[in-house]
Amino acid sequence: MKISFTINGKQETGEVEPRTLLVEFIRYELGLTGTHVGCDTSQCGACTIHMNGRSVKACTLLAAQADGQDITTIEGVAPADGPLHPMQEAFRDNHGLQCGFCTPGMIMSALAMVERHNGEALDEQTIREELEGNLCRCTGYQGIVKAIEAGSKAMQGGS
Amino acid sequence: MYNFKYKKVSSLDEAQQAFDAADDGTFMAGGMTLIPTMKQRLAMPSDVIDLGGIDGLSGISVDGGTVTVGAMTCHADVAASEGVQKAIPALAHLASLIGDPQVRNRGTIGGSIANNDPASDYPGALVGLSATVHTTKKKIAADDFFTDLFETALEEGELITKVTFPAPKIAAYRKFPNPASRYSVVGAFVAKTKDGIRVAITGAGPTVFRVSEMEQALTSSFNADAISNISVSADNLNGDLHATAEYRAHLIGVMVKRAISDCG
Fold first, then answer.
1. A68-112 per-position pLDDT tens digit
2. What is the ipTM of this complex?
3. Shortest CB distance from A133 goes to which of B50, B52, B100?
4. Which of A18, A96, A135, B99 could be cross-linked to B6 through a Cys-Cys bond (beta carbons 3.0 to 4.6 Å apart)?
């Protein structure tokens, strides 16, 4: 079946089987390999993308369900040859990653979190509660929580 | 995943026709349970009928003392709704505890209650608030809707359209979540409604149930001490690697007391 959607501001079309997962289409057909598959059982959040501005797990959506929708992946948060997004920069500055496997999902969840709170700076408790859909097996989360706190501040032009 | 037929429908009639035409069809709302279940082949429908394209099935309205939630309304919308937060704060709070943010952005009330997972949260709110489930065929009182483990009063092909909740005088939901999955090990929904006190327990048994002995005790005296001497039998409760039936029976008393305290 044919599907068509906007991804990172670009219109894409493709031919998929009903069983094709959205994350498979994004990675293998579109070559956008920043969206990772960690568990494939909708627990780890490494495949988190935005659909119509909301964070969703791309391993638990059929590609067919994305037909006509507006999608953003980690590749779409900052220009390819430009500076990093402030949230990405904050992960680098605050040791928010070690192996980096969970990082794209963490950043997509962090951006959705800022959006949900109307762009306000986020406190530690909010971040810890709302990060429950993303697993990291390296950092113990300390750096990630710090990074999101700093990133949310940077996004509003603060320190 | 094994292959299947997929059809996105744009009306309830079309959904019904697709279901009737299918060999072994299933409806998909948010897909948060269905897709993982199909990946594991615990369910292998021949046809998946996607309800995501039907207009008018999602949305929340508050009219006088009634909160109406469309079947395709996602948990995040119920949690964030100012109308729900004002009319039935316990319902908004319950929705905010389901799964994680990504799941709440996709999972729907209709999908959740049609599935009737014993560890899901919404059955507690529906029974605790004496809600009504509206379907393509009839209206079903929450007390009659959840019949057994993953079983409901829905007939083959019958679709939920909305759920109406009468606003209680006061209500609270407390759950002991599984720390990994956030499913309820035991969830207690306590409400003072115009027709009396309701205590609905989810997570503990094959399906949601009320504890009439606690309801009676709380009718005489609405405080946590009133139920101190009431114990719930572990017979017929769920036991698994997360908690034994006895542990769940104990947790019921603890969670109900906490919910009562939250009612203030």
1. 999 999 999 999 899 999 999 999 999 999 999 999 999 999 999
2. 0.96
3. B100
4. A18
Give mean pLDDT, residues B163-178: 97
Q: How far apart are CA A105 and CA A115, in angstroms?
A: 15
> CA of A41: which chain B residue's CA is closest?
B36
Domain ranges of chain B: 5-51, 60-263
* CATH number, span A2-75: 3.10.20.30
Q: Contact A65/B31, CB-based, under 8 Å? A: yes
Count CB pairs under 8 A between chains A and B: 73
* Each residue's pLDDT tens digit, B92-104: 999 999 999 999 9
Q: Which CATH architecture has domain B60-263?
A: 2-Layer Sandwich (3.30)
- Burial (CB < 10 A; 0-12, 13-18, 19+), residue B89, is middle
Domain B5-51 has CATH 3.40.50.300: no
Residue numbers of B between 165 and 204 with CB closer than 8 Å to A = 180-182
Task: Please state which CATH number belongs to domain A86-154.
Answer: 1.10.150.120
Helix residue ranges, H only, chain A: 22-24, 86-93, 103-116, 124-130, 142-154
The verdict on A37 touching B (C-beta cutoff 8 Å) is no
pLDDT for the residue B182: 87
How far is Cα of residue B223 from the mean position of the Cα atoms in its chain?
A: 26
Q: Which residue of A has its CA nearest to B32?
A: A60
The owner of tokens 């495949």 is A47
Q: What is the DSSP-derived secondary structure letter of residue A62?
A: B
Query: Cβ of B103 and A57 within 8 Å?
Result: yes
Q: Would you call A21 an interface residue with chain B, using a CB distance cutoff of 8 Å?
A: yes
- What φ, ψ does residue B9 adopt, rounded to 5°? -105, 160
Tell whether A54 is within 8 A of chain B (Cβ): yes
Cβ distance B106 to A60 less than 8 Å, yes or no, reads yes
